């Protein structure tokens, strides 16, 4: 065998590596080649994994070491199918993660993330039973595993809530979930953090037993470097690349150091200061090497196995179990790779192919990434529905608040909005009264022309307007300015006499007579509704006063009325209530808002806690997740809708002239529309505060523009067109037309409410899926 010279190139045909790999590619538990993962877009692009290679043999423990932020968690998320590489290949048990053949995500993998990824309001027993149902485990097996893992991990009693446990106890419960279904592949992200040393050793002993006795494959990341000595293979990771991959014994022997921590430190220092840069020549069949300082680029593929893995010529030594050699990257079959000895401790591969072209040719092994052929699985759907109900009923106070909130809003709306105003104080200055007689207001009901002011005041409704007498106009105006009264009504000293003269003279009455015969009213017009109410009351009172005088004097009372008559209304009542206009809008508004808030809160909370990802890794499909939430939300919506219309229609007698089933259907559609928007909000936001801001902001926009509080006909034309694009505008109009007019689904103003709601649901769901997909690949 020819002895290699340090720094001299050794050319190895790519076909050699391909043939070596094809024989055992299915024997590897996990195989990663040329993995690149980039987050962000544009200037914010950040490479997390850069040409990473990793090999994990079946039935071994692989310890992945590296500082925080080096890409360990990202790599694990790609292994379990939660993220996809920008370039490169991953095989788990010979298949791509996410394919049906790989069984990952699913029962073949047990995953313990860094975060707790458990629901705090569940007990330990409920938590394990939830995942047991997802995996479709038998009840006997679940009980047996619960007892075994409780002893192994020294778990607290099963009826303890997860949120009441200490940090270390919570980590142990999380570990128990990963072990619960006895998976073929265990991926544990720092499982021993915060665990007692004795228990840590017990955990490692159990992992060793699993790998040796049951052929389980285990990948462990840890900050405790020395505890990784118990692993069969160690991969030391930095800046998205593996610096070395070998057994602990070989690493210590190769670098002649006593601790793995010293080995890792030396590798990191060497990677930082002594890396090389390779100029790539794309038009030649062979690649020349120039020794340069490494500037750190994605086009460099660096790898350093220990010297013990190479013979004198640089040819890889055949790998053995528990003493696996450095993983060699496979290259395209039409190129020639150059292997350069690097200071006797490693090799570096260079190729004329770009990073996206580098990688194992796996196209013949790629399969459909749909994890399940069925739309949903009953046992997983049942587990999710049970979880949602358990989560809902665990906090009874919050559940009752959410359940009864729509009915409460309708009750408050009917009590507080649209009713008749009352107890409005109005200043009365009557100069017709005689101060010497104590300013007593005396009048008669006969045909006598005297004290018309007192006779007129008698017809003002005293429950709506409270008359407050004042001595002078100045005092009354001052009280109005201070906000003590809403206005001033002033009668002149000769009001009755001048009014009689005005009636007698007709067109010949002079201006002074006309001025003296008027009722002078000065109002506080700052509140439109109060002002309009006072004006209506005063005008109606004068009309009744005129009719009373005419009737007393044997004239036709209707002779003085205006020649305009309002006949029986086609729809509604003669005196319509603003409450009946507002109530349909309030019902749909609160149903929609609560659906948005609940959906976004549930998805965000579970995603942020990690429970959502953990459930997906366990095999739950997104369709199942959405269907389970849909079932729970629909049941909640039905209960809310029942109580809403119970109070609106029966207690407060809101008119319903149409089909009640159609009313309920439109209400439920608006709830589904709110759920769809909540799904979009949860897809867009990472924090609850952002979701709350979007939810509240859009809700107020809906209230203002959908015609909930005021007709859209009052809006400017261009705003009105925008208002009709809102998700609730047509639905509110449809609900009002059904309740107040009795129209059916055949009327355009009714079915438009149904059609627009369905369109919004479809559009929002599609947009949510697009956002989820985009964020998945851009980070």
Automatic annotation (TrEMBL):
Q: Which Gene3D superfamilies match?
A: P-loop containing nucleotide triphosphate hydrolases
**Record keywords: Aminoacyl-tRNA synthetase included?**
no
Q: Where is the ABC transmembrane type-2 domain?
A: 548-777
Boundaries of every ABC transporter domain copy: 30-264
Which domain of life, per UniProt?
A: Eukaryota
Membrane spanning stretches: 396-418, 581-604, 630-652, 659-681, 750-772
Location (main, coarse): membrane
Q: Which UniProt keywords apply?
A: ATP-binding, Membrane, Nucleotide-binding, Transmembrane, Transmembrane helix
> Which cellular components does GO assign to this protein?
membrane
Which Pfam family, giving just one, matches this sequence?
ABC2_membrane_3
Regarding the membrane, this protein is recorded as: Multi-pass membrane protein
Named from the GO MF annotations, one term is: ABC-type transporter activity
Which SUPFAM superfamilies does the entry mention? P-loop containing nucleoside triphosphate hydrolases
Q: Where, subcellularly, is it found? A: Membrane
Report the InterPro entries cross-referenced here: AAA+_ATPase, ABC2_TM, ABC2_TM_bact-type, ABC_transporter-like_ATP-bd, ABC_transporter-like_CS, P-loop_NTPase
Report the protein name in the record.
ATP-binding cassette sub-family H-like protein 1
